[in-house]
Amino acid sequence: MVYQFIERTAIPAWGPQQSQPLIAAGTVAGAMDATFSNTSTLELFQLSSDDSDKSLESLSKVEANARFQRLAWSASSGPGVIAGGLENGDITVWDARKLLDHDDAPVVHTSSAHTGSVGGLEFNPFAPNLMASGSANGEVFIWDIVSDFKSYSPGPRSQRLDLVTDLCWNNQVQHILATASNSGSLVVWDLRSRREVISLGSVGAIGQGSSRPGISAAEWNPQSATQLVTASSDDSSPVVMLWDLRNAQAPSSTLAGGHQRGILSLSWCRKDSGLLLSSGKDNRTVCWNPESGAIVGELPPSSNWVYDVQWNQANPNLLSGASFDGRINLYSLSRESDSPVDDPFAPRASTPFAPSLSLKSPPKWLARPCGASFGFGGQLVHFNQTGPLVSISEFVSEPELAQQAQRLEDVLEGGRAAELCGERAQGGEREWQVLQILFEEDARDKLVRFLGFDKDQVKARIKDLVKPTTPIEEKKEAEEEEEENPFASSSADGDDFFDKPPPPQAVDDLAVAFSGAFRIYDKSKDIGSEDADGLITRAILLGDVEAAVTLCMEQELFADALILAPYGSPDLAARVQKEYFAKRAQQAAYVRLLHAIVSGDLSDIVNNADLSEWDEVLALLCTYAQGDQFSALCEALGQRLLREGEGGNAVVCFLASGNLDKVAGIWIKDKKDVRTLHELVERVAVFRSAVQFVDSGVEPFLLAPLYDCYVEYAGALAAQGLFDIAAKYLDRVPADYQASAALPVLRNRLALTDITPWTVVPIGPIQQPIQPAQPVQPVQPAQQPVQPPLQQQQQQQQQQQMYGAYPTAYPTTTMPAAQHYSTAQPAYPTGGFAPAYQQPGVFQPPPPQPLNPASIPTGFTPPPRRDDVPWNDPPMMAKAAKRPSQAAAKPSAIVSPFPNGRDTPPPAQMAQAVGPPRGGFVPNTGKSLPPPPPGFAPPSQPPVHPGFVPQPMQMQPGFVPQPMPTHQQQAPPQSMRGQIVSAPPPARPDAVASAAAIAAAAVPKAAGPKYPSGDRSHLPEEWKPTVAGLTGHLARAKQFAAPGQKRMVEDAERRLLALFDSMNCDEVKGKEKLVPLFEGVVQNIDARHFAAALNVQAEIMAVSPELTSSVVGVKHLVNVLKTLPM
Fold first, then answer.
1. Domain residue spans of the chain
2. CB-based contact 434:663 (threshold 8 Å)
3. For residue 277, with 0-12 CB atoms within 10 Å meaning exposed, 13-18 middle and 19 or more buried, which class applies?
4. Exposed, middle or buried by CB within 10 Å (0-12, 13-18, 19+), for 383?
């Protein structure tokens, strides 16, 4: 709202309207304006929306019989009423609606009950029909404007009050009223009991021989029923005093330093108790924070006293200030801005005052009461006004999706896709039933039966249609007749007739035994009158098979022709079949099918059969199609169906053909929301498992629409916190596929999540040999290997030097950060000799650097060489090595990839990377160690103090090694996912054994646990209730926890099992204190008092710090359980 003003010397009062703010102004008593008029008026103004430097024009105006001391506007739902306390003691009430309508009789009531000028006037904020007024001689009246303006006194007249200067209703308790007087007293009234409750005395010049300063203004705290503030117009005490009625002997605090002269008015914002306005004789209007006592803002100073300041309680963004310079200034709130630049060319402001009140912090109604933001992976970050805490919690927006996705992943990982398919097929959906068939061994036969064709039914029906025939005699009988025939002779005993080969021997299974005599043909007919049968017989007798076949085809004796054709020329049978199919195809439909089967080309059936018989065509393909032909023909049939809009039938064909891109294109059209997206992914996953689909992943990407669905599905899973499953679906998208803009972003986010945890390989301390007593020079404790630049910077900010600082024995050697592959030849060293260059192709560590023997402790024999020392690229974890369990198998360590590397090689100093000498070094004496021979392992480094580990090479950005004169080969970079070797913690200086102690005994070997992990047979009786209770709650968490809480439950289980192992082995110290605490945790969890359970858990950690790691599992368990239903 822009800065506006009213050219009046008047008392203002804000109206109850919020959208269109109205303000009333009554001519103030005790002042004259420039016209020297004695007329008193009440005017109504409305704030304008345009930026104008002119005074507001009044909407309505009415005269009063005296000037105003106080003005109040009731906070009713409508325009309400306006009450004026006049200087002659009258109280006049106007109807605001009538004033706005310019009614001739806007006055509702006028009373002359007071004997002096009205010094206090205010409507009750809870009951707008109640109004309190105060005047001279301690007169206080309560008015009920609904009951004919009946008035009553709050109690017997107080002797502490003289002239009432202000009064105010309590903002929390509606029957409490406070009245202030020029006598310096403030009286609090209880209207229910109609008595004086308590009185307060102003603090000022008391004790200095003067009277108590009068109270000019008073205001109740909007949020607290027992706190109020008072101010005095006395120039000797221009302070605001904050009182608490629970201890009314003295003010609880004083707001000083804001005014140099007396304070005339106060106004406490009801929307924000941290904003209190005060105005006074020093022409200033100050905004305080009563809680801290600080000044949070100030209005522009006036040229005269500011006798009234008010918040617009209906719209606290507005406030007013009235001064004796003849203006009522209207302001709005704004944030505190930077100081403007002193620009001599900037235009000067046309108004002498700023348009708003600038605050250092936003008020409560503009500040966010709470806030929340979703983070990646189902993380919800939120805050509220209860405290300066930001909470991060896991939020699963789609619990059904998360549960189904996790189940699908478990099914696929367990190879149980067929079981899932069977469950879905029970719903009767045809697509799932076809998918179930694809898992069967005789899938084609079952698909034929699924399409409605039963071979047994057809066979039985054909059997019914075939007439029974007399069985033909066995071949044995024919053989007997042949033996009795006197004319039978062996063809082998003489030459063949006409030197023609005998006819082919009939196969035993096809031989038919005929009986009885017959005639070959009728000899009475000559050849000219022979019928077709005779001609066929003659042609057969003469061996003219082709002529006989031709005549058979002409006479449509197709069966005879097909039997004779194999005995003719090689192509005769093919020509007979072709002619047969050409003539018979139009007569019977099965002949066309027979042609397709015999020719081995089923494309005619696929391309030309009526689509209403698509299932018959598919059954034919399942029966006769061979090899790859089956998939191609099924796809062709599906394409025909798809073009005709029969997508459901086409899906069956595409499923049978194993064509993922076609069937996925149809399924994708049904994707509408996350639920249907999961159904799509589930079907595709089962289909891939059924046909063992392998994606080529090369352009052109036929599965591009499916890749987009994978990206969308992975994003939905990542939003539920299922990072590992989401990453698996992204892995199904080819790396070269770039059509989805969300793909690289999602891949990068998932890459930054800790999907694959590190495997920590513990290493025990190296046992040192017994040596004679020798003086030991203190050295630096074991250092952690230096990390790459970013990690190093973060770790250095957190590390603290343990047990004091000691000089290091070796400097930190830097390596270029940009060199991802280590070269096969070392860079130029800065030592006293030049190493022999190694042959290319052999990856070797840098050669040792010259060291000053004086800086190395002597008297110790170095340990024997170990080639199996675990080695890792990532930085070593700064935690102590864990004691391995005897029952668990030890993980294999990652040994150094350098074939000739030694256990702890000294770092090589690279050219251009040598820093200034560090403490603890002795100047070089010129001696150096000999270089190692090429191809052999270098000798062990000089002996060092036990526990000392030289600093490895740092990665220094910007460092460029010197070029090598020979070719360099590169070794592959080490994987950043793997095992981390945790080193023993650094030794304390006071724990460094002397030479005599070292010679006394070797380092003892750590003993294993008393009982194996998981054993509960030796659990002490006192721990059994705790173990039983926590085990039961853990089982409930594992069963009902959301998928996003799976990791927390697993971590809690791992820690609790370790705790139970310690209890079983009776290794928990301080059982007398811990047993009741653990039982308290279980009891609180049983009663669902989770906050109390967490408090007891924290107490356990304080009592037994060594159980901290295990007891964290209790905390995780409680956090999961409190999210579960009853």
1. 1-114, 368-397, 1021-1121
2. no
3. buried
4. middle
Distance separating alpha carbons of residues 407 and 556, to the nearest angstrom: 66
- As a whole number of angstroms, the distance between CA 604 and CA 581 comes to 14
More confident residue, 800 or 1073: 1073
Per-residue pLDDT reduced to its tens digit, 342-376: 444 444 444 434 456 888 888 988 888 889 998 88
CB 780 within 8 A of CB 808: yes
1-114 maps to CATH 2.130.10.10: yes
β-pair partners for 195: 190
Q: Judging by DSSP bridges, how do beta strands 285-289 and 294-299 pair with one another?
A: antiparallel
Answer yes or no: are the C-beta atoms of 180 and 218 closer than 8 Å. Answer: yes
Model-wide pTM > 0.85: no
Q: What are phi and psi of 450, to 5 degrees?
A: -65, -35
What average pLDDT does the segment 791-801 reach? 40
Instruction: Say which residues have a Cβ less than 8 Å from residue 339's Cβ, sequence separation at least 6.
Output: none
Q: Which parts of 281-326 are beta strand (E)?
A: 285-289, 294-299, 306-311, 318-323
Which token pair is 363? Answer: 């008020």
3-state secondary structure of 293: coil
Burial of 1014 (0-12, 13-18, 19+ CB in 10 A): exposed
pLDDT exceeds 60 at position 1011: yes
Q: Among all chains, which residue has been given the structure tokens 């811990």?
A: 1074
**3-state SS, one letter per residue, for 732-788:** CCCCCCCCCCHHHHHHHHHHHCCCCCCEEEECCCCCCCCCCCCCCCCCCCCCCCCCC
223 vs 515, more confident? 223
CATH fold for domain 1021-1121? RNA Binding Protein, Prp18; Chain A (1.20.940)
In Å, how far from its chain's centre is CA 163? 66
pLDDT of the residue at 258: 92
The set of long-range contacts for 819-825, using a CB threshold of 8 Å and a minimum separation of 24, is: 819/961, 820/973, 821/970, 821/971, 821/972, 821/973, 822/970, 822/971, 823/961, 823/964, 823/968, 823/969, 823/970, 824/968, 824/969, 824/970, 824/971, 825/964, 825/966, 825/968
304-312: average pLDDT: 95
